[in-house]
Predict the structure of Pectinesterase inhibitor domain-containing protein.
Amino acid sequence: MELIINKSILIFLVFSSLLSFSTEATSRIPSKPTFSFFASDSPSPSPVEHSSNLVPFDLKPFLSAHFPNVPPSSIHSSLKHICGVTHNPAKCVSLIAPHMTGSVNVVSSLHVLIKTLDVLVKNASSIAMKVSKDPSTSFKVEKSLNISLEQYWKAISNIGKALAAFSVRDYDEVHTMLIAAITNFGFCDEAFYKQGLAKSPMKDINGFLIEFAAFGVDISTKLKENIIHF
């Protein structure tokens, strides 16, 4: 009888210890998990700085220079079909049409899009470099722009790889490299937030580059799946 009681006491003590440990561990778990897109190397948030240097990039002249209006009557019907697989077909058509020459099919359209994207990123990097070298640019903005420039150069490299893959009809690699470029554009804006700046002056152009590259991702996805017929 005494042996049974001793065993019962022992079981009770073990159970109580486990319960105490479980309760303590649970109390250390936050009620709502926090996530950061770049959590692995993100520093502690800095105080937000509203700098007078953060003049937003003027997107309209940039787009006007690269995408002149094309009369609707001159747009090939096939282009509308090709852009139909994207998230914004009308905008896709308006951006690709000014650069189309020769036959219009899914392959030529994707090629034009990638080449145009290459020109756009090189132009954006030139603008970022010019602003970073301006004596009136603050240290934090300059540092953020320099990080952005590194990402633009990486994007240019990835787009170059996409063009190389395109030349051998490796559409899986084209798709992968365009997604990599989109990631680079996202890092450009993140550079400003990491410096505690309220916004990125390149936000509009980066948003446009992401959208334009995404058209290429959509088209290349359908191309490699052989869903579009031409």
